[in-house]
Amino acid sequence: METNENSNACDSSENAANEAFLVQSFYRFFHLEEERLIEVKRALETKAEQLGVGGLLIIANEGINGTIAGTNNSSSLFINFLLDNSDSSIAALSHSDKLGAWNVKEARSEDFPFRRFKIKRREEIVTSGDETIDARSSSEHLSPEEWDRMISENPDLTLLDTRNWYETEIGKFRGAIDPKLNNFQEFTDFVLKSSPPKDKPVLMYCTGGIRCEKASLQMKSLGYEKVYQLKGGILKYFEKVGRGLYEGDCLVFDKRVAVDPNLKPTGEYVFCPHCGQPGKEKITCDNCQTEAKICHRCSEKPFKSTCSKNCANQLQFKAERAKENRAKENSARTKDSLMA
Ligand SMILES: [Zn+2]
Ligand SMILES: [Zn+2]
């Protein structure tokens, strides 16, 4: 298994722009009729193939959310394709409503973070499970600079992370409340249970800003009025401010796994082969003796100190067979002693 162990060691002096791949994350809420959705999906797939970009996009009737990667040129051309009006099905998007603009964030990666280009059709581009929420109605967005100012000028506010526990575990804003969500659907329940004070400002953030679009609307529907969100999320904050008030790294959902405040892949984490969550425990596979990394939770479970699901299964199979053999030997021995 690749661990990227030393991938950052020798290039720290290099200009970031020299790195091979441009990674761009983006989302936008707008209403897409079913028929148009199919046209748009097809247009994007064709463009991605022409340009040779890789990526993962979620498309729904409420908009598009995704990350792509390619060479400087191809990645930029793909984003331009979204932003300009050269393609009729895409151009129709910008006329469909004036409420949202594309929210685009950039980073660089030495390794190509996607295996291919894929667009997934979903009910929502962020899963809240609440279809009554229309994320196009705008909420208060703070730029990274405004965010820092607001926090330093208001010691008495609620700073709330809207991401999942395996994301907050590797980094979050100093002093932020970590709701330890398993998934975003649990967010509203958390707010109801913990009931942060309604008279204080609530500042929320996530990776790229999209979850907060919905979280802030949920907060408002629960009676919170002073709700703010970090525009462009942690990734935009890293781009504009760097580390600032943030502690640790930020999980991203492609092969980079986690980026540091310079937006460089940390090279420290992998997605655990057993559970898919980020991990950095170094192990030597108990089955095939390969060096690998897994998450610390799995490292404590039986058969999981292995480099892959396959090795875990093999190890378990061997253990069960050994147990059966021991049982057979024991019963044979008992028989022998009875015969004697
Ligand atoms: Zn794991
Ligand atoms: Zn193995």
Which secondary structure elements does this structure contain, and how are they paired or packed?
Layout (H helix, E strand, L loop, with lengths): L20 E9 L4 H18 L2 E7 L2 E8 L1 H12 L4 H9 L6 E7 L7 E5 L18 E3 L1 H10 L4 E4 L3 H4 L2 E3 L13 H8 L7 E4 L4 H12 L5 E4 L2 H8 L5 E3 L1 E2 L6 E2 L10 E2 L6 E2 L1 E4 L6 E4 L14 H31 L1
Parallel strand pairs: 2-5, 6-10, 7-9, 9-10
Antiparallel strand pairs: 1-3, 1-4, 2-3, 8-11, 12-13, 14-15, 16-17
Helix pairs in contact: 1-2
The structure holds zinc ion (2 copies).
Walk me through the structure.
This protein has 340 residues and is an alpha/beta fold. The protein has three domains: 111 residues, Alpha-Beta Plaits; 143 residues, Rhodanese-like domain (Oxidized Rhodanese, domain 1), CATH 3.40.250; 69 residues, no CATH class. 33% of the residues lie in helices and 21% in strands. The chain contains nine helices and 17 strands. Strands 4-1-3-2-5 form a five-stranded mixed sheet. Strand 16 and strand 17 form a beta hairpin. Helix 1 packs antiparallel against helix 2. The longest helix has 31 residues. The N terminus is likely disordered.
CATH superfamily descriptor of the largest domain: Rhodanese-like domain
Task: Using the alpha-carbon principal axes, give the shape.
Answer: globular
Alpha-carbon distance between the two ends: 54 Å
CATH topology of the largest domain: Oxidized Rhodanese, domain 1
What is the share of helical residues? 25-40%
Which residues sit in consecutive blocks of at least 5 with pLDDT less than 50?
1-16
Strand order, biggest sheet?
A: 4-1-3-2-5
Average residue pLDDT: 86
How many beta-strand segments? 17
CATH-level-2 architecture of the largest domain:
3-Layer(aba) Sandwich
Query: Main beta sheet: strand number and arrangement?
Result: 5 strands, mixed
Give me the strand/helix succession. EHEEHHEEEHEHEHEHEHEEEEEEEH
The radius of gyration is: 24 Å
Number of domains: 3
Distinct compounds present: zinc ion
Counting helices, strands and paired strands, the structural category is alpha/beta
The count of helical stretches stands at 9
- What is the highest CATH level, the class of the largest domain? Alpha Beta
How big a fraction of the residues is strand?
15-25%
